[in-house]
Amino acid sequence: MIIVIRDQKVEFHKADHLMVKTVSEKSAAIREELGDKRFCVLCIGPAGERLVKIASVMADDRAAGRCGVGAVAARRAHNPKVPSSNLGPAT
After folding, report:
1. pTM over the 0.90 mark
2. 12 forms bridges with which residues in the sheet?
3. How would you class 26 by CB atoms within 10 Å of its CB: exposed for 0-12, middle for 13-18, buried for 19 or more?
């Protein structure tokens, strides 16, 4: 499932077509679908989808990978998330 957060609104989209793609392929496809290359995409790759214990969550060129958080994200079916880059800092 793709969760898009844009202009303080939340949208849900199917993500079946993104399964087994690499993080780079998923990020590019999501940005193209949304029509905005400025989005920051948080997603898991094939390792997370296969629940590999060392899988990480990727955010552009950054990774959160301690304790297999990518596998946990897949298990919870939160794949991928797309927060909008035009939101200001949280208050």
Report:
1. no
2. 3
3. buried
CA nearest 21: which of 40, 2, 38, 6?
A: 2
Token look-up 């990727």 returns: 58
What is the C-alpha to C-alpha distance for residues 42 and 62, in angstroms, rounded to an integer? 9
Query: Half-sphere exposure (CA, 13 Å, Cβ side) for 7?
Result: 0
Residue entry with tokens 């392929």: 25
| Domains with residue ranges and CATH for the chain | 2-83 (3.60.9.10)
Q: What is the pLDDT of residues 7-33, one digit of tens each?
A: 888 988 888 899 889 999 999 999 999
Picking from 39, 60, 38, 56, the residue whose alpha carbon sits closest to that of residue 47 is 56
Amino acid 13 reads H
